[in-house]
Amino acid sequence: MAKRVLITGAAGFLGSHLCDRFIAEGYDVLAMDNLITGDLRNIEHLFPLKNFTFYNHDVSNYVYVPGELDYILHFASPASPIDYLKIPIQTLKVGSLGTHNLLGLAKAKSARILVASTSEVYGDPEMHPQKESYWGHVNPIGPRGVYDEAKRFQEAITMAYHRFHGLETRIVRIFNTYGPRMRLNDGRVLPAFIGQALRGEDFTVFGDGSQTRSFCYVDDLVEGIYRLLLSDYAEPVNIGNPDEITIREFADEIIELTGAKTKVDYKDLPHDDPKKRRPDITLARKLLNWEPKVSRNKGLKITLDYFKSLDREDLYKKDH
Ligand code: NAD
Ligand code: UDP
Predict the structure, then answer these.
(1) Its Gene Ontology biological processes (predicted)?
(2) Interatomic CA distance for residues 164 and 30, integer angstroms
């Protein structure tokens, strides 16, 4: 019998790629989403399959699915700063109440659960690169706190279910990931710059652009998550690409890639914007024999082709 996996946040960027991967591996996939930041177009190609079922449901409310479950992947949560600043309470709820509901479901079904955590648990880090042992530097009451603290609570309650109930749990700390199916207007830096390039607008670089990020192509991330789920390690594992770049250099790369004739327009740096971010992936290398394979140059080309293939109205859509 095929194994059954429940994926929350399935209509979003990462959730939809996970659905594709688990379908390709022969699983029965139960996909759940309330479409608050997701888009059914990301998974509509899976609807005709008999091993794919979609539930339109807000996981911050009691979650039920019929039958047995082997695995749960909890990816429901707004993920882009402009999304979680717009819907702060839902963000706190899905990271806390939503996670609690899914842990309860995992316990009831004797399923293994993997939760999507984030490099944001390290906040504006004082340790560089960031190792899993670093406790972080987060402003709990700043605007980003709604996301960071929800995810920190998520990790805490997941470890409590593991220690207290003996539940099989996995925690992935995801660093900035990009690829096809990101929303062009989600405010994250890569779709922002590519959208601006395609519309012929100036690039909005926040601050002086000296802050760094390290971008991981989505297929590499999915491979890391798949290996982590099947591993026997319950504590958090960083999955990301350590190839670090300043946002200013990133803008230049996208200008070169797209051939855009645009200037850079410097805007104010958002509150608590982390100055540096790069994963230390020593643990993932050792434990999962995993490391990223797709270079930024290659990943950006694939992503640009995806954005170019969208309808023109998507290019100009301002809000979700
Ligand atoms: P996304 O916004 O594209 O997808 C999130 C999905 O969750 C959306 O489809 C949304 O509708 C759904 N959702 C939100 N709240 C829900 C709720 N209460 N009930 C049901 N569905 C709900 O974002 P993404 O980039 O795919 O991120 C997915 C997960 O990965 C999130 O948990 C995020 O925190 C985590 N993550 C992502 C990144 C990244 O670089 N993309 C980095 C770190 C962590
Ligand atoms: N950023 C930018 N211009 C934009 C969007 C983002 O300069 O139009 C910057 C942002 O301030 C941050 C970095 O790019 O320093 C990455 O931002 P993103 O929202 O993609 O993700 P974060 O890692 O901050 O969650």
Answers:
(1) D-xylose metabolic process; UDP-D-xylose biosynthetic process
(2) 27
- Regarding an ipTM greater than 0.90, the answer is yes
Question: Considering every ligand atom, which ligand is closest to the CA of 213?
Answer: 2
Distance between CA 278 and CA 212 in Å, rounded?
Answer: 8
Q: Identify the structural domains of the chain with CATH numbers, from first to last.
A: 4-183+217-242+273-294 (3.40.50.720)
pLDDT the model gives residue 207: 97
- Ligand 1 atom with the smallest distance to the CA of 120 is 43
Query: Which letter does DSSP use for residue 271 in this model?
Result: T
Catalytic residue among 27, 71, 122, 147: 147
Distance CA 72, CA 103 (A): 9
225 C-alpha to center of ligand 1: Å?
A: 15
Amino acid at 178: Y
Amino acid at 277: R
Q: Is the pTM value of this prediction over 0.90? A: yes
Which stretches within 246-318 are classed as H helix?
A: 247-258, 282-288, 296-308, 312-316
* Cα distance between residue 29 and residue 41, in whole Å: 17
For residue 171, give both structure tokens: 């925690």
Question: Which residues, judged by CB distance below 6 Å to any ligand atom, belong to the binding site of ligand 2?
Answer: 80-81, 176, 187-189, 192, 204-206, 211, 213, 247, 269-270, 273
Q: What is the pLDDT of residues 244-303, one digit of tens each?
A: 999 999 999 999 999 998 899 999 999 999 999 999 999 999 999 999 999 999 999 999
| Ligand 1, atom 4, residue with closest C-alpha | 12
Question: How far is the CA of 24 from the CAs of 72, 182, 288, 291, 303, in angstroms?
Answer: 17, 21, 20, 21, 21
Catalytic, 217? Answer no
